[in-house]
Request: fold
Amino acid sequence: MAVDAEEVQEIGRDGVASVQRWMEATTFMELNWNVYENVAQCAIRCLDGSVKKFDLAGAFLGGDRAPIVVESKKYRSPGGQHKYFKQFLATAYSSTVYEMESLGADAKREFFWVTSHPFYLSGWKDLATEDKIESAIAENSALLAGREIDRTILRSVSERVWVLVWHEKQEEISLTHEELMLVLANLKRKAHTL
Reply:
């Protein structure tokens, strides 16, 4: 039975909303924007001039309020995730270099890959390493726009890549929106930003 494009988009939208609720329920982040309603806030530019749109964008609460982008993948099997994950890694590096060159500073953005199914199990523990990012860049070299890899930036990006596995049942044990608002008021993670 074929699934039409609108149904695929709705499945994606539901998956993104669920991941947003789950991640915000940790009380450590706020994901204010999703690609379906706020494309500009979820887009980042790479060295080759391309623009990558992430599913969610926001920031950590408290502390330095590091920006966050989230790529959410709702799969029932590994599928083509490994290929897309390598593009994600190359994008993380390229966009970081682009920001440093164009803004003169590193935004210290955190890059989250959230999947409903694990993939590349033989190399799972190495997915966010410098070596993995370097090999991903080699496979997606156009994103470098002719530049050499900077080892210091590569290390920094590897420290800011997160790979999480989410299951829909996790929503059953997460804070509701109402509970989250009560908890955040007591934690005061947002106090210094108000």
In short: DSSP finds five helices and seven strands in the chain.
